[in-house]
From TrEMBL:
Cellular component annotations (GO), alphabetically ordered: G protein-coupled receptor heterodimeric complex
Domain of life of the organism encoding this protein: Eukaryota
UniProt record, GO biological process: gamma-aminobutyric acid signaling pathway
Species of provenance: Biomphalaria glabrata (Bloodfluke planorb)
Record's bilayer topology term: Multi-pass membrane protein
Record's protein name: Gamma-aminobutyric acid type B receptor subunit 2
Every Receptor ligand binding region domain range: 2-289
The keyword Nucleotidyltransferase is assigned to this record: no
Main location: membrane
Any GO molecular function: G protein-coupled GABA receptor activity
PANTHER family: GABA-B RECEPTOR, METABOTROPIC GABA-B RECEPTOR SUBTYPE 3, ISOFORM A
Leader sequence segment: none
Length: 293
């Protein structure tokens, strides 16, 4: 549990919850994963680009997803996008068929959807059975889903082909997980070289979507320490890091916060910099086409 006034730092490679972006409460928390709420402008711009003005939202009743959809509803409503229905569910098998039918009755074709992976497969299995797919429907997925998540269908009554048919054409919006044009990271690695090194080191497959951000999290902490100690050395106040304890962390807390908030470097997961506790980054829009993005 995190508390107000926390004196030690936490740097996460995966946390996207909007709750932890409350800067007054969590000044010493940073995350290398771009928060769900930070992707809302891209989602809204996608809807606006195609001149859609009515959407519906369906999401799993999970803390992170519920907070994300609260922010989506506020953002879309503030930009004149009508949300015809916004509903959550706990039991995918019991509740989702009825909720999908309600959306069909409302004649809503643009569907914002937020689920964890196993739930997503079950929802799209239901959508397939109801015919909620194809050119008449657009699904925009919210949340972190690994590559080819729809091909693991042991937890549904549908085949790979049926779920593949249902998700065909769906949009997924998340941060670009890599450097563009073969750029080199601070570790002198391109994103593809990092992936090759990870696999050669017997890293687990399929590659986790957090593998690169985990690597960059270590670099974030190392560069913060290096820059802070350099500053202390210049003004003659350098503490001995190996002697630091939580009892004296208050004395160096502000330096760490300022240093990390102003940190910028190219990571294997893309450019790294922060706005408050959350990472700034490049947003990418993907569309599922056939068996790939």
């Amino acid at each position: 549990m995190m508390c107000n006034g926390l004196l030690h730092f936490q740097v996460s490679y995966a946390e996207t919850s909007p709750a932890l972006r409350e800067r007054e409460k969590y000044r010493t928390f940073f995350s290398l994963a771009i928060g769900d709420s930070a992707l809302n402008p891209a989602r809204r711009m996608l809807v606006k680009y195609f001149k859609w003005n009515k959407v519906a939202a369906l999401y799993e009743d999970h803390e992170t997803l519920s907070l994300a959809f609260n922010d989506i509803n506020k953002d879309f409503s503030a930009h004149d996008i009508i949300i015809k229905s916004s509903t959550s569910f706990k039991d995918v098998k019991v509740e989702v068929p009825g909720k999908l039918k309600e959306m069909m009755d409302l004649d809503v074709r643009i569907l914002l959807a937020g689920f964890r992976e196993s739930t997503a497969r079950q929802v799209f299995c239901q959508a397939y059975r109801l015919g909620m797919y194809g050119p008449r429907y657009v699904w925009i997925l919210v949340g972190l889903l690994k590559s080819y998540w729809w091909t693991e269908v042991l937890d549904t009554a549908c085949t790979v082909q049926e779920i593949g048919t249902a998700v065909e054409g769906a949009f997924i919006i998340f941060s670009l997980n890599g450097l563009l044009d073969g750029g080199k990271s601070v570790a002198n690695l391109t994103s593809s070289e990092f992936r090759d090194a990870y696999i050669n080191a017997n890293g687990s497959l399929p590659l986790s979507i957090f593998a690169a951000s985990t690597y960059d999290t270590i670099w974030t902490m190392a560069l913060t320490l290096r820059q802070a100690t350099s500053e202390w050395s210049e003004n003659g106040t350098a503490p001995l890091l190996h002697q630091l304890s939580y009892d004296v962390m208050a004395d160096v807390k502000e330096t760490f916060i300022t240093t990390m908030e102003n940190l910028e470097f190219p990571g294997v997961s893309g450019p790294v910099s922060f706005k408050g506790s959350g990472r700034e980054g490049i947003t990418a829009v993907y569309q599922i086409q056939g068996t790939s993005f």
